[in-house]
Design a protein that fits this description.
alpha+beta; single chain
Length: 155
């Protein structure tokens, strides 16, 4: 999201239009649209992530940074091992800004609107990967959104 204030405002307004008055059905449709867009983006860009295949957790983190146009400084890693990475997202987020303006709870909207789509995106690298958030540490209730990628054991 390396952009100027006008571009940021345009993205916030687009998100407000998507979320204003959205009921359960509309949120499900927005989630499905997000899944389609993220899958299409991955198909166009997957060659950029092929070299990371030996470490799916790091590959998934790199994939998310690239997809959302953010830097590792905006989403610093606070814990990492072979099967898990935890990071604190502090980047510009149009969904966060739209929720604040509309009086919506990010704990509800983010879970229903984009957690599944993000989970499905990283699973394109490796089906054992899982994305989740710690809803005790989510903006605006916390200075960051604590997010986690885990690699589940083989079934």
């Amino acid at each position: 999201y390396g952009m100027d204030a006008n571009e940021r405002e345009r993205l916030i307004q687009r998100e407000i239009e998507r979320l204003r008055g959205a009921d359960e059905r509309a949120l499900c449709a927005l989630n499905e649209d997000s899944i389609r867009r993220r899958t299409a983006w991955f198909d166009e860009n997957k060659s950029r992530f092929a070299f990371l295949s030996g470490d799916p957790v790091s590959a998934a983190y790199s994939l998310l940074l690239a997809r959302f146009g953010i830097t590792s400084e905006e989403a610093p890693v606070i814990f990492k091992n072979e099967t898990e990475i935890i990071f604190h997202s502090q980047n510009f987020c149009p969904t966060l800004e739209a929720c604040k303006r509309l009086g919506l709870d990010t704990r509800d909207i983010c879970k229903r609107l984009n957690e599944d789509a993000t989970n499905r995106l990283i699973r394109l690298i490796d089906p054992r990967l899982r994305f989740s958030r710690n809803y005790e540490h989510l903006r605006p209730y916390s200075p960051y959104c604590e997010e986690r990628i885990t690699l589940e054991p083989e079934e």
